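pinning this so it doesn't scroll away 📌
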Amino acid sequence: MTQKNKEIGFWILLALVLGNIIGSGIFLLPSSLAKIGSISLVSWGFTCFGTICLALTLGKLSSILPKTGGMYAYNKEGFGDFIAFQCSLCYWIYVWAGNAAISIAGVGYLQYFFPGLTDPVFSAGMAILIIWIFTFINVGGVKEAGVVQVVTTVLKLIPIAIVVIFGWWYFDGSNIVNNVNLSQNPHRSDLSAISYAAMLTLWAFVGMESATIPAGEVKKEKKHMIARATIIGTLLVSVIYIATSTVIMGMIPMEQLQSSTAPFAKAAAIILGPIGASVVAIGAVISCLGAVNGWILLQGQIIFAAAEDGLFVGSNYFKVRNKSGSPARAIIFTSCLITGFLFLTMSKNLVNQFNLIITIATSFALIVYFFSCCSYFVISIKRSLKISIFEYIFTLLALAYTFWAVFSVGFKFIFYEMMIIFITFILYIFVNKIRAK
């Protein structure tokens, strides 16, 4: 792609960060966390601190190595082809599983208007329709997808602002004080409940690295804006998340919140009545749609970056762009996988389906975050870069946070992660054989 066709600037980068972070997590997580109790608010504190450290680390890496692929590019520079291959697969799994979760959250809010979507087959069908609408938008090109992202990001902030500003007038502290640890099946200790909730809250922040992935589409003189968009976006979202989660848990009794598929609409109904609930539900749907758009943009960039280096299965096929400059083959192939995944995870309980998918997605994201933090130190040593005490500390804290978060997903998911990691050894043999030819 020529320099004149590179269309991504600061506002699209910031919209990618805000749009991809503020997606399904903020709008459905209050119901997920209500199953654990108000102790989950402590988890928000840990998660906000850890993700800010991660954002600072990724922002610094984007300044050192502003290449398409983001964390894939950092791990390739730091550890070489094999770790880059592993990370590209893990990150790719996380992205398309995450897209499935976001589309499900959007369907949850559509149920407010169309009760028939409570049927698992209809809800899966609607989620798949959402995926393919935005797949074709992204096949049209990066610039078109970026414009959609800016518009949906602005619109999604409206329902959040309504609840945060006016919700405090309906806040009841007893809802929080009397429902500290509600986790069941199994019942968890306070520390275990905090750790488990932290895994769920981390899902709400995945996407902080979004501005780093399409770095190859950013004008050379604006590369520094990648780090700025990453850090500013993460800080803004931290404030929004803590405020919204606290106010909603205080407004809605925990037993009602646990079963709600549209907690923001429920909160808006308390504030403004049925009309307000409808407005907020529409805003939540738009939010999820914007997040789907942003992640579908990135799912193609990840495969394309790895394929260009010959480090993806079927690299010769996936490294081709269409006339609009979009990695269309990579985008369409991934959307096909999302379609199958949505059918395989169908559930009568939409919140449980959402929790299962975000656990899978987050567990794979954590592997890539961990390697990226390690890559920062390796790249600094390779390039003889000076690291300030501040940079050293926040990267170590980010490393410690990701290490702790990996174990919070539970041994069952760690087992599945290890199986995928082992499979990458076999796949890498075939990839290397093809590259040798």
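📌 and the second one:
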Amino acid sequence: MSTISPIIPYRDLRAAVDFLCEAFGFERHELHENDDGELAHVELRYGDAVVMPAPTRFGAPGGAHTYVVVADADAHHDHAKRAGAQITTELLDTDYGSRDYGATDPEGNSWYFGTYRPLR
């Protein structure tokens, strides 16, 4: 069995965690601080998936593109928009049977949410 967990760098890791949980519905799973009180390791869950927002030592913020499967793209979109997410692609139905939309977080990472499950 394999699991893929994207590492997504942020300048303001605490603000990113708050935004991702509030706007996109992630849940805090693991948050570990270093001796200076800074977040050193973060795991956020969405269902049975995990993303790992990270400090900038893992790369430059703003370059990640992540797709997340959601049960109801319309409800997820509406919640994210109300929470302040910048919607970059409005809801659409794809020719492969998915309902999708795109958004960016405050540091410019692209997030796509939809109903398509690649490996059924």
